[in-house]
Amino acid sequence: MTATAPLIVPGLRALAPDYAAVLCDVWGVLHNGVKAFENAHKALTQYRAETNGTVVLITNAPRPAHLIKEQLARFGVPNTAYDDVVTSGDVTRELLSSHAGNPILHIGPERDFPIYDDMDIVIGTEENAQVISCTGLFDDETETPDDYRSRFEDLVARGLEMICANPDIVVERGDRLIWCAGALARLYEDIGGRVTILGKPHKPIYDAAIRKVAEIRGTDISRDGILAIGDGLPTDIRGAVSQDLDVLFITAGIHSADFGAVDSPEEQLIRARLVEEGLKARAAVPRLVW
């Protein structure tokens, strides 16, 4: 692709022949936390049908993959749209297993407790915990990260490491932006705490997703044969670029206000933002369509 080639493409069809596999973000691309984007899941279904391509959904959800599959079905995303799912919850579980038997301070809603299923995990208190497992805010409808500042100052003083199961700073829920665990991890680090993050944009979740592609296809494929699709610059796009993967940038996600009209983004604004962030994309489209 030359420097003067159009960045905005009509849809996934324009890129599909070049890639044997797709790693696709979920929240912001396939649904908005309330309902599915029909054209998006139809695009992935069509990609699989027409190219025999493999689709692995890669999400910063702090829960095991089987729960995300159930959630997708409730939202109306059919299983024809993907081959499998890899979550930041899955890769976080691998790290948490090294803390089996030790008290862990859980920060996040009760709905995220399945991340500890079938593990010898002891939920501790702020006084006896040896590590923090952060999956989100306790109440992301009413709280903000600043509500945790004084609590975090005490935990940092104790020298506790935070393991962050969801690097996202915010996600869309309907027409609102909701704070995520990544915002708490950023605050904890700003105060002086140690943070380990395993989801996008970090390497472990990409390694897990690429292994999953190889498992499904029965053979390894080179990274230049994999296309990453996502809407988050600091997570989806930065992560893919850091792993030498081509990117289809979905502009009508969390950054939609930055590029002009949501469904008719201005290419020069997209290009300028990518340069500003030190990132690149193979192509961009407002919403995922075939």
From TrEMBL:
SUPFAM superfamilies: HAD-like. InterPro entries: HAD-like_sf, HAD-SF_hydro_IIA, HAD-SF_hydro_IIA_hyp3, HAD_sf. One of its GO terms (cellular component) is cytoplasm. Keywords: Hydrolase. GO terms for molecular function: phosphatase activity. It holds the Pfam family Hydrolase_like. NCBIfam families: HAD-SF-IIA, HAD-SF-IIA-hyp4. This is HAD superfamily hydrolase (TIGR01459 family).
